[in-house]
Every structure is written in structure tokens, then in C-alpha cells.
Write a structure and sequence with these properties.
- 26% of the residues are buried.
- The protein is mainly alpha-helical.
- Helix content is 56%, strand content 4%.
- It is globular, with a radius of gyration of 23 Å.
- It is built from 13 helices and 3 strands.
- The chain has 2 domains: 105 residues, Tyrosine recombinase, N-terminal domain (DNA polymerase, domain 1, Orthogonal Bundle), CATH 1.10.150; 175 residues, Intergrase catalytic core (hpI Integrase, Chain A).
Length: 305
């Protein structure tokens, strides 16, 4: 019977994977994460819970799996993501009449500690952008500088950066079309210095005969891949900050934080970031030391203002 339930479960997971990848158009990163979660859950129901049919899975089984992960020290963030995976999965199975009722209704997510988003302060960010020595005047150097600028000037996700095609750049209107999560498009304005850097980079790209539709390419003229971007940006940020977290996403946080510090409205930041709702953007309303100084100076009656 266990062999039967394993086959039945794997078939259901395969159908769900096709659904989120081709109908819901989830990103590849999300699809892989969901598949990993469901594979782990499958191992638990075969080997530990000894479930004989999918219909026998209930909230107690799920709680047992979550408790086993907590005992192993799995973080609340990871557990919440796995709960999100199971919610989507069992909702799909319910629509397919494979399971009955809302199995996940009694599952509560553990509270996760609130962490302020990591970001780079303005001064070191300006130093690296204004430096004439850190980026070589060749294809590699100007490509790396453009990667940094696009992430910081436009608040892009890493996947969005990698997906930019040359046709998405409108140099005349000074704007860029970004393909966000679930193929949602948004238009982001470009500052003149970003437009100038794109022109410089494109000349180097042409000199190297890199005829690729993607805007940014590797040293061999191929499409960028995730670890390439991560390695480059981590190396660059390591030159200006000692903070432990130096991923490309830190530049997205930096973009939003700096805009907020300079008076941008939260709704405008939401649109620029491509967030579906305002709740995701509100994480940036944290009070940075610089913002606190500004508020204090403007509001305190003895500040002289």
C-alpha cells in the first residue's frame, strides 16, 4: 500500500508542478522550492507517518511533520514557507477532488522574528559609484558596473536583472521595461547617468561581437546565470561594507530604503518594486539612523528649524 500511495503522491505533485509552472507562471526558483518542500513532506508521510493513501493525510499528520522540523532547528521562516507550499498544494488537490475539506485550516504558522532589511548606507554606496578605479574600462568592468547600477537605481530582483533584453531598454524615453514575478511587467524610469552607462556598456558589447538579445551577458557572451550575478555583486559590496549579508537583494533593500529616507511615498516605492500589495513594502518603513536624525532635526523645538 505504501508503494501505491507513493506513486499516487508523486503523480499529484507532478500535476501540481505543471500547474504552478505553466498556468500560474511561478518563477523557476519558486517552483524548485515548492518541489523540494513537497519531496520532504512525501518522505515523511511514507517513512514516518506510514500513510497508505493521500486521503488519509490530515492536519495531525502535517503538524507532526512541522514539529519534527522544529525539533531539528529549522527556522520559522523556512517552516512558514513550507506551510505556504502545502496550502497551495492541498488547495489544488481539493479542486481536483483528491482530498476533501480544508486540511490546512487548522495549521498555524509560527511567529518569525522581525528583522530589518539589510541595506548599504548612502555614503559607501556613493563612493563605489563615483570611483574611477574599481571598474576597469573594458567589457567586464563596465558590465559589472551596469549590473550594480541597475540593481541599485531600479530596485530589481536578481531574476529581473537577468531577464532584461536589449529591446526592454528605451534610451529615448529613459525607461526600462521589467518582467517581474508571474510575468507582470512594470516600467521604471532611468536616471541620465544610468542611461549613459548603458550606452557605454553596449559599445563594449558590440566591440566584443556579443550579439545576444539579453542586455547583460557573461564574459563569453552568454546569458547571465544566478551564481554569476551573486558572485559579482557580493565581491563588489565586499569592497565597501563589512556587513555579512551582501547579496544582490541587499541592493533592492538599499534602493527602497534610500528612496524612503529622501521622502518618497510608500505607494510609489511599491510600484517601483513591483509588489502586489502594500504589506510587502511596509518592511522598509523601519527607521534607519539617518532617517531618525532627519526627523529629530526637523521636529525637535530646539533644533533651530
Amino acid at each position: 500500500m505504501l508503494i501505491c500511495v507513493e506513486m499516487e503522491y508523486k503523480k499529484a505533485v507532478a500535476e501540481f508542478t505543471n500547474f504552478i509552472q505553466y498556468e500560474k507562471r511561478f518563477s523557476l526558483h519558486t517552483v524548485v522550492a515548492y518541489c523540494n518542500d513537497l519531496e520532504q513532506f512525501g518522505t515523511y508521510i511514507y517513512d514516518v507517518a506510514a500513510i497508505e493513501q493521500i486521503e488519509a493525510i490530515n492536519h495531525q499528520v502535517i503538524r507532526g511533520w512541522l514539529a519534527s522540523m522544529m525539533e531539528l532547528g529549522t527556522s520559522a521562516v523556512s517552516i512558514n514557507r513550507k506551510i505556504s507550499t502545502l496550502k497551495s498544494f492541498f488547495k489544488f488537490l481539493q479542486k481536483k477532488n483528491i482530498v476533501a475539506g480544508n486540511i490546512m485550516g487548522k495549521i498555524q504558522s509560527p511567529k518569525k522574528p522581525k528583522k530589518l532589511p539589510a541595506y548599504v548606507e548612502e555614503k559607501p554606496m556613493q563612493q563605489i559609484l563615483d570611483s574611477d578605479e574599481l571598474f576597469a574600462d573594458d567589457f567586464n568592468g563596465q558590465r559589472d558596473l551596469l549590473m550594480l547600477m541597475l540593481l541599485y537605481y531600479c530596485g530589481l530582483r536578481r531574476a529581473e536583472l537577468m531577464a532584461i533584453e536589449e529591446k526592454d531598454i528605451d534610451l529615448f524615453q529613459q525607461q526600462i521595461k521589467v518582467h517581474g514575478k508571474r510575468n507582470k511587467e512594470r516600467i521604471i524610469p532611468m536616471l541620465p547617468e544610468l542611461t549613459e552607462q548603458i550606452n557605454i556598456y553596449l559599445k563594449h558589447k558590440q566591440l566584443n561581437n556579443f550579439d545576444h538579445k539579453m542586455l547583460l551577458v557573461t564574459n563569453q557572451g552568454e546569458k547571465l546565470y544566478a551564481t554569476f550575478v551573486y558572485r559579482k555583486i557580493t565581491g563588489i559590496l565586499g569592497l565597501i561594507t563589512t556587513m555579512s549579508k551582501r547579496s544582490p537583494h541587499v541592493l533592492r533593500h538599499t534602493f527602497a530604503t534610500h528612496l524612503l529616507n529622501h521622502g518618497a511615498e510608500l505607494n510609489a516605492i511599491k510600484e517601483l518594486l513591483g509588489h502586489a500589495g502594500l504589506a510587502a513594502t511596509q518592511v522598509y518603513t523601519h527607521n534607519s539612523p539617518e532617517r531618525l536624525k532627519q526627523v529629530y532635526k526637523q521636529a525637535h523645538p530646539r533644533s533651530g528649524n
